[in-house]
Structures are given as C-alpha cells and as structure tokens.
Amino acid sequence: xxxxxxxxxxxxxxxxxxxxxxxxxxxxxxxxxxxxxxxxxxxxxxxxxxxxxxxxxxxxxxxxxxxxxxxxxxxxxxxxxxxxxxxxxxxxxxxxxxxxxxxxxxxxxxxxxxxxxxxxxxxxxxxxxxxxxxxxxxxxxxxxxxxxxxxxxxxxxxxxxxxxxxxxxxxxxxxxxxxxxxxxxxxxxxxxxxxxxxxxxxxxxxxxxxxxxxxxxxxxxxxxxxxxxxxxxxxxxxxxxxxxxxxxxxxxxxxxxxxxxxxxxxxxxxxxxxxxxxxxxxxxxxxxxxxxxxxxxxxxxxxxxxxxxxxxxxxxxxxxxxxxxxxxxxxxxxxxxxxxxxxxxxxxx
Length: 349
Ligand code: PHE
What we know:
This protein is 40% helix and 19% strand.
C-alpha cells in the first residue's frame, strides 16, 4: 500500500479510535498507538525516507496536519470524558440534605457533678468563692491545723490512707478551710468560701460506704457571725436541693474544728416526715455536719479569735445525690454503668 493510502486510512481509523475511546485510560492507549514513539505516525515518518523527495514533501505536510488534527481531537475527547466523569460522580455522590440527621451520641454530666455545679451556682449567688485544695494532703492541714493534734482520739473518726509519715489522701475537704484562712486578708472583706472535691477514707465498700466520695466544704468568717447565720444558710441549701417544703432541724454533735457542732437533718422527702424505709422510720434524714469555727482553728491560721468568728459546714455530695435521686448503691457512682449514668441526662444544667 502506498504511503498516501496509509495516511488516508490512518486519518479515518484514527478519528474513529479517538471517538470510540470510552474512558481516559482507553483514550491514552489510543494516543500512544497513534502518536507515540512507536506509533503509527512515527512509522509513516520512517517509511518516508524511502520515497522520492517530491512526494516526501507532500506526505510530510499531510502527516503534520494529521498530527495537529489528532492532537486536537484527543484534547477535545479528553475534556469531554473528564466532564462526563465529574458529572457521574456528582450524580452518584449526591447529598440529600433533606434526610433527617443521625443523632450524635453525647455523654452526660455525672450526677454528682450536676449537683456540684448546681450548688456552686447557688453559693456563688450568695457571694461565696469556690476554692480548690490538694487531694494529697499533709497531716498538718488535714488534722493539726483543724485542732486535731497528733494522738487525738478523734483522728479515729476518719480512717485514712497514708502515703508516707506526713502525707495522706485527704479524709475531708476541711483542710481547705485552713489553707484559705491562712491566706485571707480580712482588710479586703469577710471570707466566704466553698470547696468541692474528692475525699478518701479506708472503708469496706458496700451500698452506703465507699473508699472515695465527694464533699463540699463551706466556711464563712467575719465579725459578728452567729449560729443564726449558720442555720439560715443551711436551711436555704436544704430547701434548694430537697424542695421548698422541707423542714430542717439541728442536733448537737461533735467535730474537733467546730464548737458548738451540729448535724442537720431534713424532713424525709419520701414520706414527708411520717416515717418510711428511706428515713428508717424516723421522719428525718441526716444530711450534713456543721458548727461554729473553733477559736483554735482561727488562731492556728493567725487570726484573732476575739475579733473574728464564723461557721463551717461539710456536706457529702454523693450522699445528697443518693437522697435526692433515690440511688440504692453508692458504688453506682463510680462503676460507670452507662445505663445508670444516662438516667440523669434531663437533670443536666
Ligand atoms: N469534715 C467533717 C466530716 O467530714 C464535716 C464538717 C465540716 C463538720 C465542717 C463541721 C464543719 O465529717
């Protein structure tokens, strides 16, 4: 076949091959076959050497023309294929924005934290500051500063975890009283603080005892603070947490760092004071310990107890949560069963 024929045929076949390539990959194969280093155009160029110069020129022109033509067609085809592919992807991956969303599974606040946050807001509203103290505490702050010298029998009230001879996991939040008293500058005004946090006691864990629980300490020190202030404050806390129709009563008690000391009971919210299993048929539920700050505690912190005085209280946050929500087992607070924890979602604040 003479070269003119071959060019003519290639023009036809090439155009057809380009047109029928359905994917980018196929199109690239066609390009290599037509115009590659071993492609058909190259072959024709090689074959040109053998023909006479006059025809060589003509063929040369035709081959150049054909190359331009192929290049252009390949280009057009490629653009069309890319466009088609994008359209197809858009079609396949179409988002239906009207589909209802899948709910994101969010955790809930822990019930003890819910109560703590609520009480913090309650006290902040009455002008208290929130103070944190260390959980690894020295004997000095956990006991001595709180009027509990070494070998004082009342130390036995709180069996503790010692870390070394002088340090322990704090058995109460009361050491934060001492730490704050030491630092407070009464020229700037009265001291009103709460301190929530974890405390630890050596206990055999059961439904009502845990080696770890949360307390909230409270301390108010100024001139002319009376037991009436303590009673009014505790009563408003009890009503805030357990309901406005709760009655409260104070019973004499003993703590080394308060004198006089009291324990507060709240009328049973379950039976309204008539007597039931929740209140062990007494009509009352014990909720916290409190008292007037012992002069020794003030003096230990360098405060003149003839001028200043105040009250302190310590409430158990777990205990409050148990009573408020009727939780049967204190261990539920830290064994992290989601079914238990999720029940308090609606209480979240
Ligand atoms: N720290 C005491 C306890 O853990 C509670 C308390 C605090 C009592 C402040 C009086 C005043 O039992």
